[in-house]
Amino acid sequence: MRHSFFRTRAFAAVALLAAVACAQGQPLRTLTFVEVGADSAAATAKTLKKYASGLQVPATRVRVLQETARPSRFVVLEAAENPDELMRAESDSRGLLEPLEAMLIAPADRRSHEDFDLDSLPAAKQDVREPSASVCVLAHVDIGPPDRLGGEAALRQLADAARHAPGNLRFEIWQQTDRTNHFNLVAVWSSRASFDSFAASAPAREFRKTVARLLGSLYDDRIYHRVD
User: Fold this and answer.
1) Could you give the 3-state DSSP secondary structure of residue 172?
2) How many CB atoms lie within 10 A of CB 126?
């Protein structure tokens, strides 16, 4: 589901989605993309850090990420095992976002997901510590006909290879809840060099070759650093 998270009506939608996920016993995964004017990057980082501090509830991972190549673009990453607790924290903290209204150059884009291959995620990487200097990479993959099942199999193979690659701290596949052919790859690497090495590796190249004919939009990966 995509919607701005800055308005009261949008928060009601978030609350409804979280309540449904909680009732179904499902974790909640969200990415909220924020773009502001270039001269507002520092103020935005400060505002989002304050917001994230209010979402530190048990069994919830919150990260504020700033795009390395374009510092005026941010992502708020939220991964909650108990959506009900996150819902309450978001409601209590939404006032902290008011300063962003004047700085946005486009509506914030919030996308909700569920885990695509949680059963394949090694236990050692489910609770891994992510150093503040680590490199975060988000990749959007839009897989369509004629061979969606083949594309999903390729995603799983990529994840397995990445998780065994030197320098990988986390690699998760999130499937968008309202567009199930849309996936976001959420990866954390110990350094830019480790990411670049894997991106040029045989498994990564084979994945790009396999899904090239299946993509409904340009394969888009972006490199971020943490600001929280």
Assistant:
1) strand
2) 10
Dihedral over Cα of 34, 37, 38, 41: its sign: negative
pTM (two decimals)? 0.85
Helices 202-211 and 192-199: crossing angle in degrees, nearest 10, is 60
List, in order of start, the domains of the chain with CATH numbers. 2-113 (3.30.70.100), 116-226 (3.30.70.100)
Tens place of pLDDT per residue across the chain (228 aa): 444 444 433 333 444 444 444 445 578 899 999 999 999 999 999 999 999 988 888 888 999 999 999 999 999 999 988 888 888 888 888 898 999 999 999 999 999 999 998 666 655 555 566 887 899 999 999 998 888 999 999 999 999 999 999 999 999 999 999 999 999 999 999 999 999 999 999 999 999 999 999 999 999 899 999 997
Give Cβ neighbours of residue 17 (< 8 Å, ≥ 6 apart).
Answer: 1, 28, 83, 112, 177
Q: For residue 187, give the nearest of 148, 226, 150, 159 by alpha carbon.
A: 159
